[in-house]
Amino acid sequence: MAPVQADRKTAVARWRARLKLHPLAKLGPGLITGVADDDPSGIATYSQAGAQFGLDMLWTMPVAYPLMSAIQSMCGRLGRVTGKGLAANIKENFPPIVLKTLVLFLLIANTLNIAADVAAMGEVGELVTGIGRHAMTLGFVVGTLLLQIFIPYHRYVVFLKWLTISLLAYAAVLFTVHVPWGKVIAHTVWPRFTLNAAAATVIVGVFGTTISPYLFFWQASEEVEDMRGAPPLLKNPEPAAAELKRISRDTWSGMLYSNLAAYFIILATALTLHAGGITQIDTAAQAASALRPLAGDFAFMLFAMGILGVGLIGVPVLAGSAGYAMSEAMGWKSGLERSVRDARGFYAVITVSVLAALAIQYSPISPMRALFWSAVLNGLVAVPLMVVLIMLVSRSKVMGAFTASKPIIVLGWMTTALMSAAGIAMFLPGI
Predict the structure, then answer these.
(1) Residue 186 and residue 65: Cα distance in Å, rounded?
(2) pTM to 2 decimals?
(3) At residue 82, does pLDDT exceed 70?
(4) Residue 156 predicted with pLDDT over 50
(5) Domain 37-426's class?
(6) What integer pLDDT is reported at residue 419 of this predicted model?
(7) Which of 17, 47, 149, 272 is the most exposed place for a label (fewest CB within 10 A)?
(8) Measured over all CA atoms, what is the biggest interatomic distance in the chain, rounded to whole angstroms?
């Protein structure tokens, strides 16, 4: 038995070594953050944009790409340089009311987001398997909680990275329909729509789900998590050049992957749902179901499996970001590498946020409408949070010699201005 066991251990060691050499292993929080950005809430929002406005909302993705990349790279940089998450840095550098307000809004938005996401996953699970949606929802909730609570992050993250492949489903959907690329490019560069309250609401929803507060907290904290006890760059600047280059490459590539997937979702729904006269989408599952008679069973299955894949990433990221933010605000120990006994408050926040989202499924609150409006709420909350973030990464008192570059800061302020303008426009019916 001993030689057999030794052979098995050797085989497992070789398998793990191959996994570490895989290109996915070289990518970090930026990739997972980017894919989590296209959670079922995001998919519903992008589907609504494509269904309601056709090709004329494609422009939002090329515009959003450099803006979201700049913001997320600031978050990653802040975490690696200071060795602390976003909430911990806000706590040290701003009045308590700032942190309390931002964290409160984050918890509300995240709970609504999780509720919408698990509801969509339950619906899609029912469509694919025939098992009741409530049973599927419960299964997804229990599964994600068990993974987060009992599996160390360095093992769990391998599962999350492989799930990122699910986003390719939305590119594959386009092979099932005719794509007039000349027209697509023309509308991407020069959209044709009237800027009114309805358009402003969709734009805020798109940018809100693309540039979301929970992603800010998650990426900063995951950079700290990935340090595994190594000193921050403020204390050990020697690896700074390599580390900051890695964060930049990881973030910009992860956001590109995310944006391309979102672009394909808008495009696919524009060419199918909008063209077929379907202009109102309440859930990601509804978008998948509506594709079936228009583009066939294969397109439906691809869209549905993509929803389930990114949902299994998005829910843990939403719950985890809430846990990090609350724990840092309260001074509790936090981290997905820690045991439940060592970080009770952190895991309690994760558990409560997910179970509260599950309870919404059985309440008069419609998770279907929460799906879109949680994205809009994220868009509005993101504005003050971005102001705080830019101020943090611009201060040498916080970042030492590693303050963000001027081009990144400029992109950050442009993002804040755009989100502010879109938010104001949404409430001006006379536009």
Answers:
(1) 19
(2) 0.85
(3) yes
(4) yes
(5) mainly alpha
(6) 82
(7) 17
(8) 79
Token pair of 176 as six digits: 């099932």
Residue type, 167: L
User: Is residue 23 over pLDDT 50?
Assistant: no
pLDDT surpassing 60 at residue 13: no
Q: Is the model's pLDDT at 12 over the cut of 60?
A: no
Exposure string (b/e) for 255-293, b if CB count within 10 Å is 16 or more?
Answer: bebbbbbbbbbbbbbbbbbbeeebeebbbbbbbbbbbbe
Written in H, E and C, the secondary structure of 121-141 is HHHHHHHHHCCCHHHHHHHHH
Angle among Cα 336, 342, 348 to the nearest 5 degrees reads: 65
pLDDT digits (tens, 9 = 90+) for 382-403: 889 999 999 999 999 999 999 9
What is the residue extent of each domain of the chain?
37-426
d(CA 266, CA 288): 13
CA distance 428 to 431: 6
Residue 271 DSSP label: I
What is the per-residue pLDDT across 158-204, written as a single tens digit (0 to 9) for each?
766 666 676 677 777 777 788 899 999 999 999 887 777 778 778 87
> Which residue's entry shows tokens 């409006």?
373
Cβ count within 10 A of residue 237: 15
Residue 213 to residue 104: CA distance in whole angstroms: 12
Rg of the chain in Å (alpha carbons)? 21
The C-alpha angle with vertex 121 and arms to 120 and 125, in degrees rounded to 5, equals 120
Q: Are 30 and 219 in contact (CB under 8 A)?
A: yes
3-state secondary structure of 282: coil
Q: Are residues 78 and 286 in contact, defined by beta-carbon separation less than 8 angstroms?
A: no
Burial of 85 (0-12, 13-18, 19+ CB in 10 A): buried
Q: Name the one residue in this structure whose structure tokens are 């450099």.
A: 66
Q: What is the C-alpha to C-alpha distance for residues 291 and 275, in angstroms, rounded to an integer?
A: 11
Residue 243, SS3 per DSSP: helix
What pLDDT, on the 0 to 100 scale, is given for residue 15? 46
